[in-house]
Amino acid sequence: MRRMKTANSTTLLQSARKIFLRGFIYAGIVSFFLNFAMLIGPIFMVQVYSRVLPAKSYDTLYGLIVIGILGIIIYGLLDFVRNWTYTVMAHGLAQRLNLPALQAGVLQSVEGGVNEGGAAIRDINELRQFIGSNAVSMPLDAFWSVVFLVALLFIHPVYAMVAGGFIIAMVVMNFITDGLTRQAIKEANAAQQRHVQEVANSMRHAEAIEAMGMLPALVRMWRRSQGEMLEYSNTANVRTRIVLAITKSLQKSLQMVTVATGAFLVLSGAINAGVLFAGMVLTSQAVGPFAGLIENWQQWVNAGQAWSRIKALIEHEGSARQTMPAPVGDGDLSVEHLVYLPDGRDIPVLRGLTFSLSPGEVLGIAGPSGAGKSTLARCLTGIIKPTAGGVYLDGHSTYLWERGSFGRAVGYLPQSLSLIDGTIRQTIARMQDSDPRDVIRAAQAAGIHDMIGKLPHGYDTPVREGMHMLSGGQMQRLALARALYGDPKLLILDEPNSNLDGIGEQALIAAIVEARARGAIVIMIAHRPSVMAVADKIMVIEHGVVAQFGPRTEVIEMISPEARLANDARRKGIMRVVPAAGDVG
């Protein structure tokens, strides 16, 4: 689903650019005076040769030494101010971009299943480190090389011509470097991201990898992706090294040419020996930043590509959610002509679903695998944006709702079990400050309070540590406790009993009954029929459309007798739904 750039993302990127430009301009002004301060060395040389040595004046020498020391101190202070400016600029950019990029990354990860948030943080860190490095000073120093060129012009025009010629050569080498390496660096960075993502995705399934002997095959796959990355990286490095070798040869020849030029000028009587050494230093200072640009060019390319990825990610954030917190009322849940078409698909996963639920109603959703049940759950929670139609709770779109206030009123147990690093208490409380009584109440509702008490640190046990002590069913009940925390008004459970035993299912059913009793809307997706006995309504989804929907007893009657249900289950994969004891068929 393609998203459009919003005013919020544009404003954010503009403010980030302003932080950079404001800092860059300030650093540029400081660089101007810094480059003037760098003239203290050449001036000192000229004065020693032209005044101190001919007159053999110690007083003049002492005075020049004092002035030179003051100039060096000023240079050091200016250099500190410029570096401090870069640090503040890098910190400001990171502070401005971290949270929006992470939020946009989470949204894109939900759509694409890729950890874009982690990649965004890495890109921001790379950008921050680049801005805080010396590489960012090179263009400013190159710009203010005009100071040294003017000084060389005053010494002798030939010096200025020599420096200008080498500067032109360095600029040409910069263009050559960019043309030879930019695409290779881009491909190397992309291959590296793919390789890291492949390894990270595989590590999430370490148990299956070890149990089924998949590691050798995965290692071969990782080697192929790593080989691709190294091939692009080596190509970029080799080309850069060739250009750097030529650049260093030019720098060495610059020294020889400068000395030879000075020698000719001294022999002709145009300058003295002190001016010769000053000309050498000034020429080196004028040309040096351009050589530095070539040496640090890969950092510039990497930083530029990191900024492009951050910019694309934030612009991709798309339709802005509401920022004003709004409490969730006790109104109905209404799904109106809901359509969802993922990127790269021609056929919608959901096609025109329409239904409504009132507070205190429990809906059970059944259907074959791939029918769109989990996608419906994601639309109901506002995780993904519908392509058409909408989901409305108490008259407001669940997608556009401000996530803080909406999230506090929603409990969601996704099909793929995922628990964030933190303690058991933090996990149940959704990583927020919590009243211990609310945490315990949610744990009791999920039937895991006693189990938590047997862990080494009870509710303070880290989840990462507890994962080695808890079964799959216990982890699922922990996720259920998280969904039940805060007595949500909308409770959506996707395959909540897939890992549960009989005791776990009893706790689940009791939690659903309790949620219904306090007026919550409960939606559960299940393949196993045991929990369907508590449903007020049942919906059967096939191929993204509603095949059956209505009161539980009526839907059961539509698909009875049992033999017909079993036949349909074999033929279509529809879940078998068995009426609870005491129901009238």
Structural overview:
By secondary structure, the protein is of the alpha/beta class. It has three domains: 1-133 and 308-319, no CATH class; 143-295, ABC transporter type 1, transmembrane domain (ABC transporter transmembrane region fold); 362-572, Rossmann fold, CATH 3.40.50.300. The chain is built from 21 helices and ten strands. It has helices at residues 7-37, 40-55, 58-112, 116-131, 138-143, 145-155, 157-203, 206-211, 215-267, 273-295, 297-316, 373-380, 403-408, 424-428, 436-445, 449-453, 463-466, 472-484, 502-517, 552-558, 562-572, and strands spanning 333-340, 350-357, 362-366, 388-393, 396-397, 410-413, 490-494, 521-525, 537-542, 545-551. It has a six-stranded mixed sheet with strand order 6-7-8-3-9-10, sandwiched between helices. Helix 9 packs antiparallel against helix 10 (273-295) and helix 18 runs parallel beside helix 19 (502-517). The chain starts with 6 loop residues before the first helix and ends in a 13-residue tail after the last helix. 34% of the residues are buried. Residues 1-7 and 573-585 have low confidence and may be disordered.
What is the CATH T-level topology of the largest domain?
Rossmann fold
Helix content: 55-70%
What would the average pLDDT be, to the nearest integer?
81
Q: Mind telling me the CATH superfamily name of the largest domain?
A: P-loop containing nucleotide triphosphate hydrolases
Overall 3D geometry? elongated
Q: Strand arrangement, largest sheet? A: 6-7-8-3-9-10
Number of strands: 10
Weakly predicted, low-confidence segments? 1-7, 573-585
CATH top level label of the largest domain: Alpha Beta
How many helical stretches? Answer: 21
Radius of gyration (CA) equals 34 Å
Strand content: 5-15%
Task: Tell me the major beta sheet.
Answer: 6 strands, mixed
State the separation between the terminal residues, measured CA to CA.
44 Å
What is the number of domains? 3
CATH architecture of the largest domain: 3-Layer(aba) Sandwich
Structural class: alpha/beta
